[in-house]
Each structure stands twice: as structure tokens, then as C-alpha cells.
Design brief:
Layout: H1 2-15, H2 20-34, H3 44-62, H4 68-75, H5 81-108, H6 112-118, H7 125-138, H8 143-151, H9 154-164, H10 172-185, H11 189-197, H12 204-207, E1 222-224, H13 234-250, H14 258-267, H15 271-278, H16 285-299, H17 303-311, E2 313-315, E3 331-332, H18 333-342, H19 351-369, H20 373-380, H21 401-410, H22 412-418, H23 420-434, H24 438-445, E4 448-449, E5 459-460, H25 461-475, H26 479-493, H27 497-504, H28 508-518, H29 525-540, H30 551-562, H31 564-576, H32 578-584, H33 606-623, H34 627-632, H35 636-639, E6 660-663, E7 666-668, H36 701-762
Parallel strand pairs: 1-2
Antiparallel strand pairs: 2-3, 4-5, 6-7
């Protein structure tokens, strides 16, 4: 029937555009012919055949020589409801079969895209909604249609429909409008610029408001989240997730417009509504986590936004009903976010559901301190030892951010049993605070455990963490707890000889590490690898002037009891393990699926994996050096990762892997045989390493290279000046003879001129 009637139907469609009843019937028939729906009760084979026939009919319509698509686009302007409705339906059906061909024909039409956008203004909701669906399909991947739709004032129309339908608490039409908005902005820089320049970003905060009383809250640096609970429907959550996805899309890392969009979002006051959403305990965990991620993206690498976030105070109601009687007081936003990351899980919330909130809160903390050393130092100042023995039962609202982190780590038997991720994220946050910040590490070294007034001997927090790691490894609890302790200590020791000296002050620490490395049964591969890496770091950074165990004392343990090759094999196995490779491949600060579920593969955080990758080659070179070789090697300071300036460091040189100068006339190859030798192995007067005096701290390699280049340049300049001086002396000696010859020539010329003048006068 379709094959026989299709040509006639298309002819009627083109020649009888005034007969609306006939047009309605033809359009409905064409839509049914091109529909993919299989007959009722038909088998799968029948359905597949019907789909093939529908696709064939659709392609015939698109290949029509008289361009039936132009006719359909004209019919979109018809005032009749059914003509317009069935035209939109037919275009949508054609797009399902041959979307790319239809898009090309629409772009050829001068008013094609404009007619589609006009559907958004149709007062008849059914036609408007069908138009939204058609635009969603056509803008999913076509950047040209995205641009034209955007410049047809689509942003304003879509946001207007969202407001008419009740905002984010509206129905599925709101979700469709937000999805179309997402399509127009996704991977389209020009549309993102246009959206910002037309004040589209300024309209985003109102989309986050779920309670009208919250509209203006928080714009002056405070936020109140004590509003009555709001019932969250599935549709409400879906709408909000699309809004949050749009916000994060505008500030993706690496985009050229990210900084401008971050500034615009901060200026329109979007952070307080996001915080209110993140702290809405009745909201789904997926919504809360995405709100936290969005705040992190807004302040990431943006100093002004980080400073604003630092000043925000929040008055939040207790999350746990048992603390409902506690009087809420304003607290810094960062303190509450840290509490989300490492605090107790709310009653009635499953561990796998709340995990994504912890992961997002930790990401926000990392973006807050990233590139912000002042924020790191401020958080390090709150690191205080827990008070009484019952700190674990003390309300979390009564603890500072640092005190809460420390107490969760030390009370791992209780917190880890309840939720192992509390301990894991507490380790991550403390690593984030200490990373690459010498002052923070020195501040943390001042923390001691034990009350001297009660006769208890103060014990450094660093050694207490090692003690807890030992107990966790021996007690058979979750591997993540012992790994969290070990990796935290690794971050603490790098570039901190004072921290290494503190760790070596407790001799049992070395014995425990050796025991873990040499274990052959009942030892976890990841724990063993991290223990080997930690022991190597201890040997590498044991360069303090006053250390309880010198490198000469550590070297026999490394070379004989452990074995350098075995240590490197343990670390190599760690690097090649599936767990480490999974963590190393994650984006910075993300340890979870955005919408739920605990990833069973996550054992290592991004702080440790970044540190491991950065120091791995230098670590391999350093552990192969003997204690005397290291002190005599001018490149050892570079192997330490920038340790020049500490007592015992011997200056700077080339990259890790450079052969080391062991003694006069001998070379000990560190790691890479291809690396160039930085210093002559047979320098005149070279002193044997065994009798070498401790060298004074030298400048870093970059400064040494600059000074050396200036010296060479000045030496060359001096040689040039010497040559010019010699040439000047030669010229000066030759000048008298040259002057006599020049005077004789001038006299002869004057005589000839006078003789010529006399001859002329005689004539």
C-alpha cells in the first residue's frame, strides 16, 4: 500500500496546501507509514521488516526531487492545530530514520531552523512539547543547528518555559527544556560565550532554589539551611541534576572560557544556593554530591572564588536527629564540608549511597586548597590532638576541622568499623593539607598525643599514625585503613628531613617496615609495596643534621636485611598492580561514580598516586646510592626532589638517573645508563668519598645553570674586549705615518689646482 500510494500522497501534499482537512489526513498517513512501530502481536521478524520498510519510505521522502522538506517547513507556520501537530510529528519520525539527511535539508532552507524555534512559542502545549523533542534530537550533535537555534533567542524562551512550568520542581517538560539547553551549550564555545553575554548565567541561581524563601539567602556571605524539609520527587531530582550538569559543563577544566564563567557565577551569587542544596539532608545523595562538585569546579584554580568561599558562614541544622537539641551556630563553610567528608553517616542512609557525598566533599576541599598555600596553612593550624579518650563520642560540631580529621584517624577501630571510608577520606584530607607545604608539615610535627599532666609521655602524631598502621595491618581489618595510614605518612615525609628524623626516633618503625617488606605470606601486595616505598623515602630523605639513625646506619638494613633489588621489585609490583593503575587513571579528586555506588577498585587516593609518579624515578636512583656516594654526589640534591639547602645536601645537578661520583676515578651508575655525567670522574684533586668533608648547601640546579651561563657569557665578552684593545693599539701606532702621507697628497693637490688656475688666467 505504501509503495503504491507514497508518490500520490507526496503530490497531494505539494499541490493541495490550502485544504487543511486533506493535509491533515495526508500528514497523518505519511507519519504512520514512516513510523517504526511494529504491528500489534507481531513477531520480532515482522517488527524488523516493518522498521526496514519505514526507513525506506522515510528515505524516499527525503530524496524527493521537489524537496518535500521545504513544504513541511512551510506547513509549520500553518495556523491549524492538526496540520502543525502532524507536521512536527512527521519531521520527528523522519529524523529517527535519517537524522543527518534531514538536518542538511533544514539548514539549506533560509527559514527552516527559525520555524522550528518558533514552535517554542506556540501557546498549544502539545505542539510546543513536540517541538522541544524535535529540537533536542536535531541539536544533539549538529553544531551549526546549535548556533542558529541559540541566536534565535532560544535560551530566553527555554528558561521562560521552565519558569512557567514551576521551575525545577516542574514536570518532564522542564527536564526536556533543560536537556535542550544542555545540548545547545555542550561542546559549543560560541554558544557558551553568547549564553554568558546575554546574562544566561545570571538566571542559573534561581533554578537552584527549591524553596522561595531561600531566593536571596546567602548573597552577603551567609547561608541558612534550616528551612522546612521539602519532598523530593524523582522528577525533581532529574531536573536538578540537569541544571547542575549545565553549571559544571560551563566551567570544565582546560576550557578557554572557564575563568570568565567562574567569575560570572561568583558575581551572580551562585555558590550559596549550591551550598544550601549540598546541605539539604532530605535531598537525594546524587543531587547533593553534584552540588558539591559544582562548587569545587567554580572555585578550582580561581583565587577570588577561593577567598569568597573561605568567608562564607553557614548556620546548619544538625544532620543527626540525636543532636537536634544542639543550638546551631554559624560555622565556616569549609568546616561543614570537611564534616561531610569524614563525619558520621546520617541515620537511615546506606553506606554506598552516602559514599558519593563523601567523595564530592573531599573533591571540594581539594579544589579549595589547590594552588592556595594560605588555605593549607590555615587548615594545618586547626590540627589539634583529640582531648579526652571519649573524643569519638564528642559531638562533631564541637570539634575543629583539623581535630575531627585527627580523631577519625586515631579512632579507626570505631570509625572504620562503622564506615571504613571515614578513615580513608580523613587520610586523604590530611595528605591534601600537607602536600608540598613544608610549613604545614612542620606544624603537624608539633602535634603530640598524650597528656603529660596525667603522666602520659607525649608521642608525636606521625609516630602515632605509624603505630596505628601497624595495629591495623596486624588486626586483619580492611586493607584500606592500613593503606590510608601508610600513604599519608609517605606524603608527610617527602621533602621533609625533620619528619624523617621524627619517624626514626621510634626505632620500632624501621623494624615494622622491614617486617612488612620481607613478609612472604599473609601480607597484602599493596601494603607491602607501599611499605617498601615508605622505607625508601626514609632512606632518601634522611639528610637532617640531627637524625637518630644516619644513612650509614640505614644502608646495611637496606642493602642486606631488605635488599635493594627486592625493595625495588616490591615497589615495581605496586606500580603495576591493577589497584594502583586504576587509581592513577582517575581524574584528580574523583574517586566515585557521580551518581552512586562504591567503586570496589579504589584503594589509593590521587594525592599519593601523583606523588608516586612524580618521585618514582628519583626514588629508584636514590635507593641505589650508598650513604657516602650520596653525600659526594653533586646531583643528590636533585634526586631529593629539590632538597638543596638542608644540612647534608650536596648541591644540585642533572636529572634523576645521572651516574654518581663515588670516589676519585670511579663512577657508580644510579639508574639510567643513558644519562650524561654531570661532573668529571677524574677531576684533579678529587677527594675520596670516605674522607670528604660535608659540603655547604648550594644553590638549586636552575640557579646554578643561570649563573654558569652568565659566567660563560661574561668570559666571552672579556675575550672580545681584549681583541678590540689589541686592535686599537695597532691602529694608534700606524696613525703618524698615515698623517704624513695624507699631508703630502693634499699639498700636491693644492699645487696642481693653483697651476691650473694660472693657466686659465693666461688664456
Amino acid at each position: 500500500t505504501g509503495e503504491a500510494a507514497l508518490g500520490a500522497l507526496l503530490k497531494v501534499l505539494k499541490e493541495n496546501s490550502e485544504d487543511q482537512n486533506l493535509l491533515k489526513a495526508v500528514l497523518e498517513t505519511l507519519t504512520n507509514l514512516c513510523a517504526r512501530d511494529s504491528p500489534r502481536g507481531g513477531t520480532s521478524n515482522v517488527g524488523a521488516a516493518a522498521g526496514d520498510i519505514a526507513a525506506q519510505f522515510s528515505q524516499t521522502i527525503l530524496d524527493d526531487g521537489d524537496d518535500i522538506i521545504s513544504t513541511l517547513l512551510e506547513l509549520l507556520g500553518d495556523a491549524d492545530f492538526y496540520v502543525r501537530y502532524y507536521t512536527v510529528q512527521l519531521l520527528g519520525t523522519l529524523h529517527m530514520h535519517a537524522g543527518e539527511d534531514l538536518q542538511k535539508r533544514v539548514l539549506v532552507s533560509p527559514t527552516g531552523v527559525g520555524r522550528l524555534v518558533d514552535l517554542l512559542s506556540d501557546q498549544r502545549d502539545i505542539i510546543r512539547n513536540e517541538g522541544i523533542q524535535l529540537l533536542i534530537a536535531m541539536t544533539e550533535t549538529n553544531a551549526d543547528i546549535q548556533k542558529i537555534v541559540a541566536f534565535e533567542n532560544a535560551f530566553d524562551r527555554l528558561l521562560g518555559i521552565v519558569d512557567e512550568e514551576g521551575g525545577v520542581r516542574g514536570n518532564i517538560v522542564v527536564q526536556d527544556c533543560l536537556q535542550l539547553l544542555h545540548n545547545l551549550l555542550n561542546y559549543n564555545v560560541s554558544n557558551q560565550n553568547f549564553f554568558r553575554e546575554t546574562s544566561g548565567i545570571q538566571r542559573l541561581p534561581n533554578l537552584l532554589i527549591t524553596d522561595p524563601s531561600q531566593t536571596a539567602a546567602g548573597r552577603n556571605g551567609t547561608a541558612d539551611v534550616e528551612s522546612d524539609e521539602i519532598e523530593w520527587t524523582v522528577q525533581h531530582a532529574r531536573n536538578m541534576l540537569v541544571v547542575l550538569d549545565v553549571i559544571r559543563m560551563l566551567i570544565q577544566s582546560g576550557n578557554t572560557n572557564t575563568a570568565s564563567n567562574q567569575t560570572a557565577m561568583q558575581q551572580c551569587g551562585i555558590i550559596p544556593p549550591l551550598l544550601q542544596l549540598a546541605l539539604a539532608y532530605e535531598a537525594p545523595s546524587s543531587v547533593r554530591s553534584q552540588a558539591l562538585y559544582a562548587i569545587g569546579d567554580i572555585i578550582r584554580s580561581h583565587e577570588a572564588n577561593q577567598n569568597l568561599f573561605q568567608r562564607i558562614l553557614i548556620t546548619a541544622a544538625p544532620e543527626d536527629e540525636t543532636e537536634a537539641d544542639a543550638k546551631p551556630i554559624p560555622e565556616p563553610a569549609i568546616v561543614i564540608v570537611i564534616r561531610l567528608a569524614v563525619g558520621k553517616r546520617p541515620q537511615g542512609v546506606a553506606e554506598n549511597e552516602y559514599y558519593i557525598v563523601r567523595a564530592a566533599a573531599a573533591y571540594l576541599v581539594q579544589t579549595y586548597v589547590g594552588g592556595n598555600p594560605d588555605a593549607q596553612l590555615a587548615l594545618a593550624a586547626t590540627l589539634t590532638p583529640p582531648g579526652d579518650a571519649d573524643t569519638a563520642t564528642e559531638p562533631e560540631q564541637h570539634q575543629s576541622a583539623g581535630s575531627l580529621i585527627v580523631s577519625v584517624l586515631l579512632d579507626w577501630r570505631e570509625t572504620g568499623t562503622e564506615d571504613v571510608w571515614r578513615v580513608w577520606y580523613a587520610s586523604l584530607l590530611l595528605s591534601t593539607i600537607l602536600r608540598d607545604h613544608v610549613e604545614c608539615k612542620e606544624q603537624a610535627l608539633k602535634i603530640t598525643i598524650g597528656d603529660s599532666s596525667k603522666g602520659e609521655e607525649p608521642f608525636p602524631l606521625l609516630n602515632e599514625l605509624m603505630s596505628q598502621a601497624r595495629q591495623a595491618a596486624q588486626s586483619g581489618v580492611s586493607t584500606r585503613i592500613s593503606l590510608a595510614m601508610f600513604t599519608l605518612v609517605c606524603v608527610w615525609l617527602v621533602d621533609s628531613p625533620a619528619s624523617v628524623a621524627t619517624l626514626l626516633d621510634e626505632s620500632s618503625n624501621v623494624s615494622f617496615l622491614v617486617e612488612q617488606i620481607n613478609g612472604s605470606s599473609g601480607v597484602n601486595v599493596q601494603v607491602q609495596g607501599v611499605a617498601a616505598f615508605l622505607f625508601g623515602l626514609v632512606y632518601q630523605f634522611d639528610v637532617a643534621a640531627e637524625t637518630p639513625m644516619t644513612r650509614e646506619q640505614l644502608y646495611p638494613i637496606l642493602s642486606k636485611r631488605v635488599g635493594t633489588d627486592q625493595l625495588l621489585v616490591r615497589v615495581q609490583r605496586l606500580r603495576d598492580s591493577r589497584e594502583f593503575q586504576y587509581a592513577a587513571g582517575l581524574a584528580s579528586g574523583t574517586h566515585s561514580n557521580a551518581y552512586g555506588g562504591i567503586p570496589n577498585e579504589v584503594f589509593f587516593d590521587n594525592v599519593f598516586t601523583d606523588l608516586f609518579k612524580k618521585h618514582y624515578e628519583g626514588f629508584r636512583a636514590a635507593v641505589r646510592l650508598g650513604p657516602s656516594e650520596a653525600l659526594a654526589n653533586p646531583n643528590y640534591a636533585y634526586l631529593q626532589g629539590g632538597m638543596a639547602g638542608y644540612a647534608g645536601s650536596a648541591g644540585s645537578g642533572s636529572a634523576p638517573g645521572t651516574p654518581s661520583l663515588a670516589a676519585a676515578g670511579t663512577i657508580s651508575r644510579a639508574a639510567s645508563p643513558a644519562a650524561p655525567l654531570a661532573a668529571s670522574a677524574s677531576a684533579p684533586g678529587a677527594m675520596p668519598a670516605s674522607s670528604a668533608q660535608p659540603l655547604e648547601p648550594t644553590v638549586p640546579k636552575s640557579e646554578f645553570d643561570a649563573l654558569n651561563a652568565r659566567f660563560v657569557e661574561q668570559s666571552e665578552h672579556i675575550e672580545v674586549l681584549k681583541q678590540e684593545l689589541e686592535a686599537a693599539k695597532t691602529v694608534q701606532l700606524a696613525e703618524p705615518a698615515a698623517d704624513v702621507e695624507q699631508l703630502a697628497q693634499e699639498r700636491e693637490q693644492r699645487a696642481q689646482a693653483e697651476a691650473q688656475r694660472d693657466a686659465n688666467a693666461a688664456e
